[in-house]
Amino acid sequence: MWTIRPSCPDSAQSMTEKPTLTVSIIGAGVTGAWQALMLAQRGHSVTVREAACEEATGAASRMAGAMLAPYCEAELAGRVVQDLGVRGLKLWHDAGLGAQWRGTLVLARPRDEADLVRFGQKTLGHRVVHEDEIARLEPELGGRFRWGLFFPDEGHMAPRRALSAMTGRLRSIGSQVNFSDPVPEPVWMAAGAGEIVIDCRGIAAREELKGLRGVRGEMAVVQAEGLGLSRPIRLLHPRSAIYVVPWGDDIYMIGATSIESEYAGPVTLRSSLDLLGTACALHPGFAQARIIEFSAGVRPAFPDNIPKIIKRGRRLIVNGAYRHGFLLAPVLAEAVANHLEYDEPLPDAFVLRNAGC
Ligand SMILES: Cc1cc2nc3c(=O)[nH]c(=O)nc-3n(C[C@H](O)[C@H](O)[C@H](O)COP(=O)(O)OP(=O)(O)OC[C@H]3O[C@@H](n4cnc5c(N)ncnc54)[C@H](O)[C@@H]3O)c2cc1C
Is 188 exposed, middle or buried (0-12, 13-18, 19+ CB in 10 A)? Predict the structure, then answer.
């Protein structure tokens, strides 16, 4: 049983009334931001402490697509991520934080169409679209692909805009969000009397969390004026599966590599060629795009690539969101809030087995 000490003890408080919690959240990436929002919206007193300045917050989150793609991701991640992710879609939808709902288009050049068949067999939530419907969905791609798969229920957003919308929302409902405020190690010492700490440090927690590893993801941001693509498009290829995500205002994110490495340094020449070459194969108009940024983020991941919620005294650790931090952050936040408020068991998939950490 998780013992909650109300921050404002009131002897008249009825046994059934929910106590107000005082919660300190470490890290304002998408995981921490959603934890904060979920608890603040339920009336709890929330402070967020973030090491980076406001413009650079979210070590991995800033680099994300950020696609909300439970069906496409099931190709590699399986049914657990799909089923939890469908709940994530609903929570983003209800939150109104700027997510777009235009679906995902998955395409392949004629010589790679076997990959499209395989992708379709391994995923649900799609329909086959032929040349005419591809042209209706994305006029600029008319005549370029014979057929593809359309996942109508998926979403996407511009992650940096979404993170700042979450900060704005938090402040507007009275939560404190402190940037350039690193919590020193050991972070559990950060807990004040009666306070619950939720540790959402991403890969920065790897020294403490045995089993947590980093998966490097390289990406490019380009400006392609007049291209007019309106939804995430994945171009399948036997060697790499690159996607393009419209972030609005003619800006596109081209992502992403997936390399077992915790190195967050500059993008390699080889990866940049793969990213930009695939974008040009999707549409030759990308050849005229201006490169705004090449970056790499490190996705935090546990061995099964499913995020985990770990309890240590008065601290909860939420980490390991891997490729699905945007998709699953609200689901993790909801599970934590229900657990704290009603002692609800955590979803099985989020419990770390064979802990060793
Ligand atoms: C290239 C790329 C593409 C991706 N695309 C997608 C996608 O399309 N869809 C999707 O759902 N997911 C995607 N992801 C995955 C997603 O970005 C991650 O799962 C998610 O960002 C993890 O978020 P986080 O908040 O746990 O960690 P982070 O975003 O890394 O945030 C952790 C925060 O904690 C702060 N911090 C660390 N130590 C301290 C401290 N001591 N005190 C205070 N603050 C501290 C850091 O400064 C940082 O801001 C992608 C990832 C990458 C790299």
Answer: middle
Within a domain: 69: no
**pLDDT at residue 240 greater than cutoff 80:** no
> Measured from the CA of 232, which atom of ligand 1 is nearest?
8
pLDDT for 354: 67
Q: Which residues contact 152 (CB under 8 A, 6 or more apart)?
A: 103, 125, 126, 127
Same domain as 285, residue 225: yes
CA 12 to ligand 1 centroid distance, Å: 42
| CA 158 to centroid of ligand 1, rounded, Å | 14
Query: Look-up: residue for tokens 């790679």?
Result: 112
DSSP sequence for 173-214: TT-EEESS-PPPSSGGGGPPTT-EEEE--GGGGTTTSTT-EE
User: From atom 27 of ligand 1, which residue's Cα is the shortest distance away?
Assistant: 202
> Binning pLDDT at 50, 70 and 90, where does residue 190 land?
confident
By alpha-carbon position, which residue is closest to atom 35 of ligand 1? 27
Angle at 326 between CA 260 and CA 77, to 5 degrees: 50
Tell me, what CATH number does 58's domain have?
A: 3.50.50.60
Atom of ligand 1 nearest to the CA of 245: 8
185: pLDDT strictly greater than 70: yes
Mutate which of 197, 201, 254 to test ligand 1's pocket (most atoms within 8 Å of Cβ)?
Answer: 201
Q: How far is CA 331 from CA 30, 52, 111, 230, 309, in A?
A: 12, 25, 39, 26, 11
Residue with CA nearest ligand 1 atom 6: 64
- Give tens-digit pLDDT for 5-14: 333 334 444 4
Which helix or strand (DSSP H or E) is residue 328 part of?
A: helix 325-342
- Residue in 236, 244, 70 with CA at minimum distance from that of residue 153: 70
Number of domains in the chain: 2
- pTM, entire model: 0.94
**Does residue 267 belong to any structural domain of this protein?**
yes
Q: How far apart are CA 264 and CA 275, in angstroms?
A: 17
Residues 238 and 295 in one domain: yes
24, 25, 31, 209: which to mutate for ligand 1, most atoms within 8 A of CB?
31
Rg of the chain on CA atoms, in Å: 21
